[in-house]
Amino acid sequence: MKKVVFVTAPEAFRDEEYYKPKKILEDGDIEVITASVKTGELMGRFGFKTTSTLLIQDVNPNDFGAIVYIGGRGSSIFFDNLHALKLANDFFKQRKPTASICIAGVILANAGILKGTRATVFIDGKEALIKGGAVYTGNSLEIEGNIITANGPSSAEDFGKAVLKSLE
What we know:
Layout: E1 2-7, E2 11-13, H1 15-27, E3 30-36, E4 40-44, E5 49-52, E6 54-55, E7 66-69, H2 82-93, E8 98-101, H3 105-110, E9 118-119, H4 126-131, E10 135-136, E11 141-144, E12 147-150, H5 156-166
Parallel strand pairs: 1-3, 1-7, 2-4, 3-6, 7-8, 8-12, 9-10
Antiparallel strand pairs: 4-5, 11-12
C-alpha cells in the first residue's frame, strides 16, 4: 500500500482541505499519515479533529509516495520552517508528487521549487508565489510536473483526485 504524508498545522488548518483529500486517497487504497510540529490531536478551524503520529522533522521521504501541505491560517507556521522547506525540496528532487492547497502554496514558493512553474494559491499568497518565481494563474487547480497546487477549500475534492491520480 502506498503512503502519503499530510503536513498539517496543529490548529487552524482548513478542515475540508484535510478530510476531503484524505478520504479520496484512502478510498484509493492510499495510507495517509499526518505529520506536524507536535504529535497528538490537531484541531481544524471549524472544529474537525485529527491526530498527528509523526513529527515533521522525522518524515523520511523514502517512506512516502507524496507530500501534501494542508492549508488554512495555521499553515503559516510552516512558511519558514526549515523541515517543511527541506521536505518540499526532497520530495520534488525525487520527482514525487509535491502538493499544496490554499495558502500552503507559500511553503512551496519559499522552498524555491516553483520557479517557472504554473501554480495557484489562496489569493493572500499570490505575492509570495510570484516572489518565489512561480507563474501565478489564480486557477482552482494547477498540475505541472510533480507539483500540484490548489487555491482553497472549494478545490479540495479536485485536489485530492489529482494527488491520487499522480500516484498511479
